[in-house]
Amino acid sequence: VMIQLCLVNVPDAASRQYPDLRVIVYGGSAIAEQTLRSALEAFRCDFVQGYGMTELTAIATNLLPEDHRRALAGEPGLLVSAGRALLGTEVRVVDAEDQPVPPGTIGEVVVRGPQVMRGYWNRPDATAEALRGGWMHTGDAGTMDAEGFLYIQDRVKDMIVTGGENVYPREIEELLYQHPAVAEAAVIGVPDVTWGEAIKAIVVLRAGKSATAEELVAGLRGRLADYKHPRSVDFVAALPRNPSGKVLKRELREPYWEGHARRVGG
């Protein structure tokens, strides 16, 4: 979020000089590929990404400077990776039965290592659920490639089920961020009588820029399966975030699900 704010709110950020800047370490929430590319060009220093959570004493994987350079040298897919496991740490992607899934298959990210918490204070049931099998269950949906690079797709609970198809919002958000008028984007599922859930994009436009809902959706054609296209777009002044910068999608969803007994589509 801080990187995005610097790029959006300081128009001449890319033309300034940063002689004492050596490395930027980023994390806290997923970064859009276009934002990272712009930051690499603007700040001209090394970048390191850290992925983890409080229960993991913050970090489980790193995307190192050499990984960023490798991405820019011809493997751009690495820019959306969270990197590989730290020394002494094991990271897996598992199915609903906690069995490892093949490379490229979406599942839940689980972690085992010396930095994993002992448990939640006075919450034995929550501890047993989170640490079942000796692995910390992060609640993040991701994939892992054959080299061990982890790719976070979304929070498991943020997955949208529309017409029986599973849709992870981050894939759509990544493409929306590529539009020159989009400063921020969040995608959620809202109630739909026909499909159970319909995909809605909530967008913050850059100052002085304009775009219509139709224009943004049209920009996804040919780049994303039709069933993943937003059925509606709302424009807002800002997205709600917690102190660490993560978008509070529960707050975004709440007005649309008010009056519904279940917060998922039927």
Give a description of the structure.
The chain has 266 residues and is of the alpha+beta class. Helices cover 22% and strands 27% of the residues. The strands form four sheets. Strands 1-2-3-4 form a four-stranded mixed β-sheet. The radius of gyration is 19 Å and the shape is globular. The protein starts with a helix and ends in a 9-residue tail after the last helix.
Chain-wise SSE layout:
Elements: H1 2-9, E1 23-26, H2 33-43, E2 46-51, E3 61-63, H3 65-72, E4 84-85, E5 90-94, E6 107-112, H4 124-130, E7 136-144, E8 150-155, E9 160-162, E10 165-167, H5 169-177, E11 182-192, E12 196-205, H6 213-218, E13 232-235, H7 249-257
Parallel strand pairs: 1-2, 12-13
Antiparallel strand pairs: 2-3, 3-4, 5-6, 6-7, 7-8, 9-10, 11-12
Q: Which properties best describe this structure?
A:
266 residues, alpha+beta, four-stranded mixed β-sheet, four-stranded antiparallel β-sheet, 13 strands, 27% strand, globular, disordered C terminus
